[in-house]
Write a structure and sequence with these properties.
There is one protein chain. 45% of the residues lie in helices and 13% in strands. The longest helix is centred in the N-terminal third of the chain and has 17 residues. The chain is elongated and about 65 Å long. The strands form 2 sheets. Strands 4-3-5-6-7 form a 5-stranded mixed β-sheet. Strands 1-2 form a two-stranded antiparallel sheet. It has 2 domains: 49 residues, Helicase, Ruva Protein, domain 3 (Orthogonal Bundle); 132 residues, Dna Topoisomerase Vi A Subunit, Chain: A, domain 2. The chain has 9 helices and 7 strands, in the order αααββαβαβαβαβαβα. By secondary structure, it is of the alpha/beta class.
């Protein structure tokens, strides 16, 4: 055995954990050794939870949020304002905004943002399905709640151009979220105020493009 690991099984497990984002090999080794010390049934529960997640998780057919059913709890909730859609990059952003308790509408999860340097174009994310929702549902306002980055602003402007022909209000969250900040890492108070104090997108674009 040429590896510094005393066991090939240990090394293989570390390699798998090290594939996770933000997990280096030292952290991966610590996690694997922790699992080794646990009762077998606890480890079985852990692995079964991951396997079941992968096998059975669904994505809401309306908003693309993670769900246990074909339509997520938010979209199926009769108390939500179905005339307002908040566009976000990912599921973590939905969770962050929900934690503010300030937004009562629906969501649309893009599954990414436009980033030519990463090879991600408009067709790689859920923009056309957003247009379809605007065409087929009673939507009055679309709030663009993407991260205040160059890629986020590029995506905002693309969505703005796609939805501009329709008779609805297009707004963007207030820039209480600092330039360069990502939504999921913004504190709940700031994020909540940014939702409440949103501004029309065309006015925001005019200001940033000067």
């Amino acid at each position: 055995m040429n590896s510094s690991y005393p066991s090939t099984l240990l090394e293989n497990a570390v390699n798998q954990f090290a594939r996770l984002p933000g997990i280096g090999r030292k952290t991966a080794l610590r996690l694997v050794l922790f699992l080794l010390k646990q009762e077998t049934n606890n480890v079985d529960d852990f692995t079964e939870a991951i396997n079941k997640l992968k096998r059975e998780v669904k994505y809401c057919r309306h908003c693309h949020n993670i769900s246990d059913t074909e339509v997520c709890d938010i979209c199926s909730n009769p108390e939500r304002d179905k005339s307002t859609i908040c566009v976000v990059e990912n599921i973590r952003d939905v969770m962050a905004i929900e934690n503010t308790t300030q937004f009562k509408g629906l969501y649309h999860v893009l599954g990414g943002i436009i980033s030519p340097i990463d090879g991600i174009g408009p067709s790689d994310i859920e923009i056309e399905s957003l247009v379809t929702r605007v065409q087929t549902e009673s939507v009055k306002e679309v709030i663009m709640a993407l991260s205040a980055t160059m890629e986020g602003d590029t995506t905002n402007f693309y969505i703005y151009r796609k939805l501009q022909p329709y008779n609805l209000k297009l707004s963007i969250i207030a820039r209480g979220v600092s330039i360069g900040d990502e939504i999921e890492y913004t504190d709940e108070v700031t994020l909540g105020r940014s939702i409440l104090n949103r501004t029309p997108f065309d006015e925001s674009y005019k200001l940033t493009s000067k």
